[in-house]
From TrEMBL:
<protein>
    <submittedName>
        <fullName>Stringent starvation protein A</fullName>
    </submittedName>
</protein>
<feature type="domain" description="GST C-terminal">
    <location>
        <begin position="92"/>
        <end position="209"/>
    </location>
</feature>
<feature type="domain" description="GST N-terminal">
    <location>
        <begin position="9"/>
        <end position="87"/>
    </location>
</feature>
<dbReference type="InterPro" id="IPR004046">
    <property type="entry name" value="GST_C"/>
</dbReference>
<dbReference type="Pfam" id="PF00043">
    <property type="entry name" value="GST_C"/>
</dbReference>
<dbReference type="InterPro" id="IPR050983">
    <property type="entry name" value="GST_Omega/HSP26"/>
</dbReference>
<dbReference type="InterPro" id="IPR010987">
    <property type="entry name" value="Glutathione-S-Trfase_C-like"/>
</dbReference>
<dbReference type="InterPro" id="IPR036282">
    <property type="entry name" value="Glutathione-S-Trfase_C_sf"/>
</dbReference>
<dbReference type="InterPro" id="IPR040079">
    <property type="entry name" value="Glutathione_S-Trfase"/>
</dbReference>
<dbReference type="InterPro" id="IPR034341">
    <property type="entry name" value="SspA_N"/>
</dbReference>
<dbReference type="InterPro" id="IPR036249">
    <property type="entry name" value="Thioredoxin-like_sf"/>
</dbReference>
<comment type="similarity">
    <text>Belongs to the GST superfamily. HSP26 family.</text>
</comment>
<dbReference type="InterPro" id="IPR004045">
    <property type="entry name" value="Glutathione_S-Trfase_N"/>
</dbReference>
<dbReference type="InterPro" id="IPR034342">
    <property type="entry name" value="SspA_C"/>
</dbReference>
<dbReference type="Pfam" id="PF13417">
    <property type="entry name" value="GST_N_3"/>
</dbReference>
Length: 211
């Protein structure tokens, strides 16, 4: 695989400007306080370096010297192990497994509906909006159970969920009053300086920054 010397000599993230899974990785990096080079990517026209590095030409793609990683789940867990402070996964195996399962369900059940609203036809967007609202309401007990998602401290699961909650107004997903706990959950994370660092200009424009 070939790439420019600059990419090979610095931690580099190829990321779309408004992408829920790319945002997930940028939030992990921000929570860790890690410096990196960000290369904005138009997924419909990937740069030559990305084409050379990743056979799927997908984002997010992380380059750490000779290591190239893609898929948000793989990149996020690598970063948590590569930069262990602060830890973003619990210590005990049971809690770690529960969070991994929750993140898997987000990837398979939630993210496709976000993408359908953003990039699908009107019918696909309407169906995605409806289903995403249903999934959020069904998850209310999990949001109520702890300060963060299934965990007393912020974890990789929150890095996956917060970008979805951030986008709800722009996706046209209006939650009922009984779901205010989800907005409260989001605001606890959105006020964190690390969260603000994770946002691209395009993502900042999606909603007002909570005070």
């Amino acid at each position: 695989m070939a790439a420019s010397p600059r990419i090979r000599n610095a931690l580099t993230l190829f990321s779309a400007r408004d992408c829920v899974v790319c945002h997930r990785v940028r939030l992990v990096l921000a929570a860790k306080g890690v410096s990196y080079d960000l290369i904005p990517v138009d997924p419909t026209n990937p740069p030559e370096d990305l084409v050379d590095l990743n056979p799927y030409h997908s984002v997010p793609t992380l380059v750490d010297r000779d290591l190239v990683l893609y898929a948000a789940s793989v990149v996020s867990e690598y970063l948590d192990e590569r930069y262990p402070h602060p830890p973003l996964m619990p210590v005990d195996p049971l809690s770690r497994a529960r969070l991994r399962l929750a993140m898997l369900r987000l990837e398979h059940d939630w993210v496709p509906h976000v993408q359908a609203v953003q990039h699908g036809t009107k019918a696909q967007a309407d169906a995605g909006r409806k289903r995403l609202k249903e999934l959020l309401i069904a998850s209310l007990p999990l949001f109520k159970a702890s300060k963060f998602f299934l965990n007393p401290e912020m974890s990789l699961a929150d890095c996956a969920i917060a970008p979805i909650v951030w986008r709800l107004p722009s996706l046209g997903v209006q939650l009922p009053k009984e779901a205010k706990v989800i907005e409260d959950y989001g605001n606890r994370i959105f006020r964190n300086p690390a969260y603000l660092r994770s946002l691209t200009p395009e993502e900042r424009a999606l909603r007002d920054i909570p005070q």
